[in-house]
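Take a careful look at the sequence and tokenised backbone pasted below. I need to know what the token row says about the fold.
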Amino acid sequence: MESMGLRFTVLSSGSTGNATVVTNGEVTLMIDAGFSARRIDELLLEREMTGQELDGILVTHEHSDHIKGLGPVARKYNLPIYANEKTWGAIEKSIGQIADENRRVFASGEARDFGSLRVESFEISHDAAEPVGYCFYDGKDKLSVCTDLGYASDKVKHAIADSDVLVLEANHDIEMLRMGRYPWNIKRRILGDMGHLSNEATGELMSELLNGRMKRVYLAHLSREHNLPDLAKMSVRGAMEDRGCFYRDSEFVLRDTYFDRPTPWDKVGEP
């Protein structure tokens, strides 16, 4: 089947669960399965899909908000699971029995072709066994998905540079987190280099990446305790402008993701 162009929907994103679907019409992959199988079916249905249309699941890391429904969904639809060896070691006990033919090792830094859809994984900094993000290529179109990272290393910046569309973490407002009810050890973890990106850090990163090609960034994995969608957009934009990175909405747009519903389908190559 000929590619119909690279499209995606963030089914849901946040501290309570994460899943994203990427397709080019020939191949359809889900990144993570951080909800019950029933909830994933509901989210897919909201985008007029079923699990039978999936060709596999890519895993970023082993935390429960990314793998809660991984085993049940893979068994229900007989789907291969792709993860690096250390992540496989970390998820095996929690996802239940997986058929040998559906246990696929996808090494960090590897590029793999799924038909006409090329996928590259890249290492990120997070307190997990071997966490990764993913880049998707179809022809000249590039989509990158990168959440759950304490800071953006040069390796991360190189991987996601020249993306047309980017799904990027903007987890927390630093002051909301500091004033929040979490114990200090958890706050310290979130703020650390193996935790999560703040709004300000996301804006700083965006000021380095914006180069005229990138059209849209979806702010993902927002904390329900320590962030707000409008605050995230305002803070990211403010941090970009503080570093001399100004733009018009006709050139570049920040978009929301949601903890309780999918984003609309987005075709990556379109303005």
Q: What stands out?
A: DSSP finds nine helices and 14 strands in the chain. The CA atoms of residues 88 and 105 lie 8 Å apart. The first strand starts at residue 7 and ends at 12.
